[in-house]
Specification:
about 170 residues; mainly beta; 4-stranded antiparallel β-sheet; 11 strands; globular
């Protein structure tokens, strides 16, 4: 009988503080109401002939990249991002980090090509994006100056030619 008294007392205290199923909780005077759980406003960025848009619905984020010839839409559960940036008024970059902690950097170019690297291979110095020097050959020549390059990613499957080392910052 001693255990029943605290349970009955706790039940009586909680009964007045919780709304019944299907009823809204009464507002507390002087306290601001919590914002509705609505989708966040979409964000967008226009970059030359490229356009990026993102929206969030619950835990899911959707982002779309539209270019002169195609449209790419991706969906994921993200820890952060997508973060859009425009380089040289023509190169659209997108950075995302999944809830598992995997980060990706993708650069989209007006001619329809793109490059993607893991975020651990990308650096930022002096407001500039620093890519592995191997990326330079994969970037359209007109946009290579939008990036700086590093020589940290020397791998047997993708070696750095001696002539390419001249453009490396480090």
């Amino acid at each position: 009988m001693r255990r029943a008294v605290p349970l009955v007392l706790a039940g009586a205290l909680l009964a007045g503080s919780l709304p019944a199923f299907g009823q809204a909780k009464a507002p507390v005077p002087g306290k601001a109401a919590a914002p509705a759980a609505a989708a966040a406003a979409p964000s967008s960025l226009a970059c030359g002939s490229l356009k990026a848009e993102s929206s969030r619905s619950g835990a899911t984020t959707r982002w779309t990249i539209t270019g002169p010839t195609d449209r790419t839409t991706e969906t994921g559960t993200l820890r952060s991002g997508p973060r859009f940036d425009c380089l040289e008024g023509a190169v659209l970059t997108v950075e995302v980090t999944s809830t598992a902690g995997h980060s990706l950097f993708t650069g989209y170019f007006p001619d329809g090509t793109s490059i993607t690297y893991g975020r651990q291979q990308i650096d930022r110095r002096g407001g500039r994006t620093v890519l592995p020097v191997q990326a330079r050959a994969r970037i359209p020549e007109a946009y290579r100056a939008a990036f700086d390059y590093h020589c940290r990613l020397d791998m047997p499957a993708d070696p750095i030619p001696a002539a390419a080392r001249a453009v490396c910052l480090f």
